[in-house]
């Protein structure tokens, strides 16, 4: 009986520590990756300002040849929308809408992954010497609870590699 109380005490202390540390972790998580493309910003911008154009370089849509995509009436810029649905867990389902578009400089999109939450994705284009650095970012609210905040620690690992692949695809497309 004494050992059982000791084990339960340790489990209780670990659970309290998990919750306490989790609540100290950041609620908002940001992931960013950059790539330099040998082209001017006006050549890159159409590929990030039009949801349908992202199909050609997306690191996720190519994972499922059966992914279902639908687009809104606005093709590019603010108000352009895309929804996708896939049985592949790496693709999932969701929707995005461009909420900010500054020609040849910046695009921001609101993302909705349903039960998985919401986020904001950004593309920042910085041109210098005929080359454009594209910085692809994601900012997500991991929620008020400790479990989401613990998951936030892995967001860079989970999303970062896909962003690197997508930027390499974009670079090859624009330069090709």
In short:
This protein has helices spanning 2-24, 41-48, 146-152, 155-175; strands at 28-37, 68-71, 81-85, 94-102, 106-112, 118-128, 131-141.
- Major pleated sheet: 7 strands, antiparallel
Shape, per Cα inertia axes: elongated
Radius of gyration: 20 Å
Class based on secondary structure composition and strand pairing:
alpha+beta
**Low-confidence residue ranges:** none
Helix-strand string:
HEHEEEEEEHH
CATH topology descriptor: Alpha-D-Glucose-1,6-Bisphosphate, Chain A, domain 4
Strand order of the largest sheet: 1-7-6-5-4-3-2
Strand content: 25-35%
Provide the CATH architecture: 2-Layer Sandwich
Average pLDDT number = 88
Number of domains: 1
What's the helix count? 4
CATH class: Alpha Beta
CA distance, first residue to last residue: 71 Å
Number of strands: 7
Q: Tell me roughly what share of residues is in helical segments.
A: 25-40%
Output the CATH homologous superfamily: START domain
Describe this structure in words.
- The chain has 176 residues and is an alpha+beta fold.
- The chain has a single domain (27-175), classed as 2-Layer Sandwich (Alpha-D-Glucose-1,6-Bisphosphate, Chain A, domain 4).
- Helix content is 34%, strand content 32%.
- The protein is built from 4 helices and 7 strands; from the N terminus they run αβαββββββαα.
- The chain has helices at 2-24, 41-48, 146-152, 155-175, and strands at 28-37, 68-71, 81-85, 94-102, 106-112, 118-128, 131-141.
- α1 packs across α3 (146-152).
- The longest helix has 23 residues, at 2-24.
- The model has no long low-confidence stretch (mean pLDDT 88).
């Amino acid at each position: 009986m004494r050992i059982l109380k000791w084990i339960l005490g340790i489990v209780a202390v670990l659970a309290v520590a998990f919750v306490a540390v989790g609540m100290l972790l950041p609620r908002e998580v940001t992931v960013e990756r950059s790539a330099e493309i040998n082209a001017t910003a006006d050549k890159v911008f159409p590929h990030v300002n039009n949801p349908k154009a992202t199909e050609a370089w997306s690191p996720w849509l190519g994972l499922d040849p059966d992914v279902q995509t639908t687009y809104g009436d606005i093709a590019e810029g603010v108000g352009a929308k895309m929804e996708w649905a896939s049985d592949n867990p790496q693709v999932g389902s969701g929707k995005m809408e461009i909420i900010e578009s500054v020609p040849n400089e910046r695009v921001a999109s609101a993302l909705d992954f349903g039960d998985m939450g919401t986020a904001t994705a950004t593309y920042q284009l910085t041109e210098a010497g005929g080359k454009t650095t594209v910085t692809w970012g994601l900012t997500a609210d991991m929620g008020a609870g400790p479990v989401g905040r613990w998951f936030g620690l892995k967001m860079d690992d989970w999303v970062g590699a896909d962003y690197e692949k997508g930027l390499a695809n974009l670079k090859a497309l624009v330069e090709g």
